[in-house]
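Hello again, I could really use a second opinion on something today. I've dropped the whole record in just underneath, so have a look.
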Amino acid sequence: MPAKKEVVLQKVLTTDKDYHALLNKEGLTVVDVYTSWCGPCTALLNTFRKLRNEIGDELLRFATAESEAIEALKEYRGRCEPTFLFVVTGEVLVSVVRGPNGPLIEKTAHAELRKEHMALEGQVDRVEFHDKFFEEEAAKKAALAEVAEAEKNKIVPIRKQLALVIIKPDVPEDRISDVVQRFVDAGFLILKKKQMMFEREQVEMLFSSLAEESNYEEHIEHIMSGKNCVLVVSQTDRGESLIGDLRELVGPPDTIDAQDNYPECIRAEYARDNVKNAVRHSSSKISAEREILSLFPWFKAPWVPGTGPETQAGILVIGPGFMESKGQFGTVLY
């Protein structure tokens, strides 16, 4: 007696022609859509066999379809999650189940097959299922991309680079304003200006880089000999070139070098010798921070334009000595 020929459980669809031909037939087709590198979902084969045997309806069919090979399934390409399409007569998508959920697939198959019988008999109209998964996924990707772009363009508060400038006692008092003006004309911002007498400890900190020089003591004594005009300066932008620009404006510490090679610099005009050379400024960003912190411990560098907090909040503490008066301009404290 010849062996009974086994009925193929799932039709394998690998071309557009086969796909459209099968799905246009009367009935309900449950299509296992897969990516080539992942393969069909074999875990549900027993579920499909059970459905076929229990229902025994020729209008119920099962198929596998490779998404890369079929243009109608391009949205499903590159996905590893099992996806099952429920398609009825005329290639109408009526439901989608994602994931190997056997009970849900059974329930959906029973319900959609029953509705398809009713549609074939003219009792109901077929209702096409609009799969919003891709729209929602696209919206999530767009939102994530927006967040990433915002994070990339996030404005980080940045404070300006500062430098300390000292106009030394050898500059005549009536010429100090002229020297200050030289900085202003060169585009520097004067954030703080103060006349100061220095103690030795402060001067040693300011001239620590010259400690090994033979004229170190002369520098110390000169700065302590009279009032110094101390400036905290910055530039209109972040100030990354601040130290270099200062060095160019002030000129080299050697007076002869300044006069011979940099006649436009401040030292060429005002310096007397290599100690009484008119101006001293911070030599680096690190030294500037140290020097300003030492002389002006409460001073904070301003924000680089466009990066600082747009609003600032503070707390006003009103002591018992204040009186209150209410008038047309509101409450006045005095």
Observations:
- The first strand starts at residue 11 and ends at 13.
- Confidence is low (pLDDT under 50) at residues 311-334.
- The CA atoms of residues 159 and 300 lie 8 Å apart.
